[in-house]
Every structure is written in structure tokens, then in C-alpha cells.
Amino acid sequence: MESGIxxxxxxxWYIADERWQRLSPEHRYLxxxxxxxxxxxxxxxxxxxxxxxLSGLDLLAIPPDVHLRPAAEHGGRGPRRGVVHHRNAVxxxxxxxxxxVRVAGLEDVVRDVAGTLTHRGALVIAxxxxxxxxxxxxxxxxxxxxxxxxxxxxxxxxxxxxxxAAESAGETLxxxxxxxxxxxxxxxxxxxxxxxxxHRVDFAWPGLRVVLEFDGRGKYFDYRPTAKALYEERRxxxxxxxxxxxxxxxxxxxxxxxxxxxxxLLFSALAAPAA
Length: 275
Description:
The protein has 275 residues and is α+β, with helices and mostly antiparallel strands. It has 12 helices and 11 strands. The protein folds into 2 domains: 159 residues, no CATH class; 102 residues, Endonuclease, Chain A, CATH 3.40.960.10.
């Protein structure tokens, strides 16, 4: 049973403190976005990373502020702490309403975060937006009409590199490194036949029989008991190896801190003759 202690999220918006303590950083941010977004007038929409979160897209990092796009021509943090008002820009898609909150369309979200986030952060969002039906033709048209505008070059690179087959931020970051290293791009979500059935892997170079798998925490903890998941992964990997594939497993540290070690390992694997 929860205690009667309340935590103030924003003026007029409170949540039971015990419930707040149980929330992940991502869900705490979502609560803040709702607290800001629900009272908004029709002339203002939730935008940028905040709109991405409401759209069910994961972020590479949780932002400190809630982002809005007001109808009025002004920018800055506005009168409320923790809220950023972005200058009104030409909208590329219709706004949506998600659980009572007015939210910018996917094309606007991707265009906007390309101007405020790093390439990696913007691509993580764009990959997921592409899986939800992002209209890249609209974005390419805007790029062509706005040469030299802030964020245009980064947006163009994001559109060129996005992959709707990516299933996690970790896979997106892996692909960013492959681009930076000028490695021949693998097949994403590739099905490989084995003696115990076909298995889908994150990345594969079929001609070289090399598999690259990103092991994020969610793979083992979100849906299945840990012991069973680990057993199935080992069984699956053994089947791939027996079928003549080399399997390289990586995690968050490999794509964020130990990149050089991963680069050497991958280059060595791709240079070796196929078994």
C-alpha cells in the first residue's frame, strides 16, 4: 500500500512518492511530459525528443527539459522551468493527439532532433520512426528546399543511413560505427538456416559467414526468464557455429567505450576467409 506522501511533478501535478521512486528514468520523464503537455492550448504541441517519447520511441539519453513548439514566434526556455519553447518552423506533417496530448508528427520530430541532437541521437530516433512509417520523401524535399539551414546536413546524413529494420538503440549505434569505419554494410535482421531451424540475427555478412549480435539487457529480461533466455541463446549460437558461421557478440560498452577493441575484432573477422 502506498503512503500518502506526494511528489510535485509540476505546479498542480502530483504523484505518489512511492510510485515515483519505482519508476525508471524514462518513465519519470514521460510523466513530466504528460504534466506539461496535457494542459497545453491547441496552438502548442509537444515536439523534439518529448514528442519522440510520446510516440513510443526510445532515446539515447533522457533530456533535462520538455520540448514544445508554440505557434508564436519565440524561443528559449519560456516562463516555466524545465520547458524549452522552440521557434515555430514550417510543419512537415499533421500534428497528432496521443493520450490527450497534442504531439508533432514523425517527420517534424526527425527534422527537429537532427538540429538539436548528435548524429547518433537523431539516428536512434529516426530508425524507430522509419519503422512506424516515416515519410522520407517529405524530409528529402525539405532538405532540398533549405540548403545551408541549421541541421540540414545532419538530417541528410540521418536519412541516408536510417534502417527501419533496427530493433534497438544498440543496433543503431553499431551501424553508426560500421559507417564510420567504412566497413561493408551487413544484412540487417538476417535469417540463417541451421540444423535446429532458421534463426534471425542482428547483422550478417553472408559471403563471409560472419554474424554480429548486439546483446542489450532487454533481450534477456523483458519477456522471458533469464535462465531460459540464456540457454536458448547458447543453443542458437552453437547451431550457427555448427553451420559454419562465426558469431561475434557485443554489448553497450563495445559501442560506447571499447570501440577500438571491437574495430580490431571485426576487421580481423571480415578479413579472414569464410569457413
